[in-house]
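## Example pair
The file below holds two records. Each record gives the amino-acid sequence first, followed by its structure token line.
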Amino acid sequence: MIKMLEDIDAVLFDMDGTLVDSMWVWVAVDEEYLERYNLTEPATFHEDMEGMSYREVAEYYHRVFPTLPMTVDEIMDEWHEMAYEKYMHEVPLKKGVKEFIEMVRKEGVKTGIATSNSRKLAIETLEALGISHLFDAVKTSEEAGAGKPAPDVYLLAAEKLKAEPSRCLVFEDVPAGIMAGKNAGMKVCAVKDDFSEPMAEKKRALADYYIEDYDDIKNGTYEVTLQEDA
């Protein structure tokens, strides 16, 4: 058994930037949306939205851009239309992740997703990639009632899997998500992603482990960034 997986009953994945290489989609959607409605991006735009649930981001848009002529639900629906084709045809899995999931499931470890994305888009993406059968639970921050770094979505996923939080291992790509897993009392492995590369050292400081890709786990080349218990 790989040391990272000792005493672990459930592995939980964030989706965007962690399970799939998709953060670029939302940068593109934001740019297109701002141009479509002639909106000016605030100085701390992406920082403000980090970790928010799908609905919380739409509420943020509604609040920051009061000239938008639609409801929060209409904003979310429009984003779904803008992102759908990209998720269905252009978003790949992270390197080595499918093989890693298959490996842990063979060991009897449960697997789940805890995402800030919409449930509809998450389910559609898993089905398009042919991996929906590899997960025992899919939970969203919107369902949990709070975005990351609040622990709610990870605790909800653990509850669904009937796993104690202390026996869960989380994979995350941004600081807010890493903090959500740690706030839930779980171990967290940070995953490299181009979108959050400028925050790599912060991710290492917050997480228990760090990987360049999921092959690092199989190869034993992952970084232990916090001292493990003796």
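Second record, same layout:
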Amino acid sequence: MQLQTDFSLKPFNTFGIDVKAKLFARFDSVQELQELLQMPELQQKPKLILGGGSNLLFTKDFDGVVLQNGIKGIEKVAEDEEYVYLKAGGGEVWHEFVLHTLDVNLGGVENLSLIPGTVGAAPLQNIGAYGVELKDVFQELEAVNMETGQVRVFDNEACRFGYRESVFKNELKGQYIVTHVVFKLHKKHRFNTSYGAIKTTLEEMQVQEPSIQHISAAVCHIRQSKLPDPRQIGNAGSFFKNPEIPLAQFEELQLQYPAMPSYPVSETTVKVPAGWLIEQCGWKGKVINNYGVHKNQALVLVNYGGAKGDDIRKLAFEVIASVEDKFGIKLNPEVNIM
């Protein structure tokens, strides 16, 4: 629990942006975190909680304290006829947690395989993929108030989950640190294979009766074929949220763009893939000096090496402006820009 000064964050963000934190410390327990928060030298400084650094774009040095969540551990805390409840430390790597659920044959998060980041960061933006969101398997979380050091429990309703949203990105932004999450996982598996290319991939794998392990393997295959490995090319996965627009607006746009894909959200709202919109604006595969838009997935902005965070930020807003100009749809970043 040692405080370090002028600490390089380059290895701790998947964009690989070379910035520094004024102060840096890692905590491995709730008690260590509480002790850190009581240190006089940290009291009035801005604080940033770092998990895997997979949802951040740093545009400058952080003139405060970066606290890295290192709380580990996965344990069964309850069980009933339908569900097993697993409690995981906020510092657990998300995909390692998914692999654990597969090992013990519990369903619910297989569609969320290979999403980068940590367990503690997952509820903040209600991570989701291939028709499943974290809120679907969420029971409760424990979080420490950064002002008081007190532990508070949040249930599903208190988290106010939305599409890539939670109370922690809005009213309570920057006020709590998630230390543990409890998941409600299925004993009897319910397969979700209708979204994206899962069904086609399972057919290519010659799987006739899928298991949660097969679905996870299919999701991993799809993600690896579309998304660049951050260890090789700096990126934060999907940079933009898929926009939700009124059905009437979609029907009007569809007259001009018949191939425009969509997914129903409600009777009056549809979701349009941001990647498709960006690709129609000619951004897919575009390279600008040492950064750009990935050649296989237009949702992904990339740092080919040595780019500054502000370069990527400017690119993101150029993409947003071009999509709004062409389609009248405003994209919102999924990545937190610091």
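Notes on the second record: The chain has a mean pLDDT of 89. Residues 88 and 115 are 16 Å apart (CA to CA).
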